[in-house]
Design a protein that fits this description.
Blueprint (H helix, E strand, L loop, with lengths): L5 E5 L3 E7 L2 E9 L3 H14 L5 E8 L5 E5 L9 H10 L5 E8 L6 H18 L3 E5 L1 E9 L3 H10 L3 E7 L2 E9 L3 H9 L5 E4 L2
Antiparallel strand pairs: 1-7, 2-3, 3-6, 4-5, 4-6, 8-10, 8-11, 9-10
Helix pairs in contact: 2-3
Length: 202
């Protein structure tokens, strides 16, 4: 499979709801970029909905979707976290956390009913979210003498590079964001300029 440097995520928080036999399922979707952010959102929801029966969740992190977790929070194994995770995968999303808060209504739903409830609530939260395509970029720091600024800026303009910051002192230092799949080609262009150094920043 060829590497893709694009991924889909959500812009901001969204919510979805589902009811079945008296039980209420409140789904909350959040854009997240780290496990620390996941923990913060979970802690906040558990505090806000402290009287709920369950706080089940799933998250996927990284443009390659390499970090993920699903948690049933006391529901029968595989009936909550996995269906939530499945909806994230179906929508091809990453850097997202979905938490489904359940208030038990007094009637057991059974395994199929639970799977349907958590899956539907998560799906509703995704449907209400604004989805955006993002591009993976690498940041490079370019250092060069003032005399070749025009040559440097021509590459920046021709390649439509994002300038994060710059410092024009005795030597010029510019930090640039370059699309992942273009990074090797673009940095090789910079490498052909005399007295210029380019180093990978992040």
């Amino acid at each position: 499979m060829l590497f893709s440097d694009e991924y889909k995520t959500i812009v901001g928080p969204s919510q979805g709801t589902f009811r079945d036999k008296g039980s209420r399922f409140l789904a909350f979707a959040y854009p997240v970029s780290s496990e620390h952010e996941v923990k913060q959102q979970l802690d906040a929801l558990r505090k806000q909905y402290y009287d709920a029966t369950h706080h089940c969740y799933a998250y996927v992190l990284g443009f390659d979707k390499s970090a993920f977790r699903a948690n049933d929070d006391g529901e029968p194994s595989g009936t909550a976290g996995r269906p939530i995770h499945g909806q994230i995968l179906s929508a091809d999303l990453t850097n997202i956390l979905i938490v489904v808060v359940r208030y038990y209504g007094g009637t057991k739903l059974g395994v199929p009913g639970l799977i349907n409830a958590y899956r539907t609530a998560a799906s509703e939260a995704i449907a209400q979210a604004e989805v955006v395509n993002r591009i993976v970029k690498e940041v490079y720091e370019i250092e060069y003498p003032y005399e070749i600024m025009n040559d440097v800026m021509k590459i920046v303009k021709d390649e439509n590079l994002e300038v994060i910051n710059n410092d024009f002192g005795m030597n010029c230092v510019v930090r640039l964001a370059i699309r992942h799949r273009e990074a090797a080609r673009v940095t090789s262009k910079f490498g052909k300029l005399n007295h210029l150094t380019a180093k990978y920043f992040i």
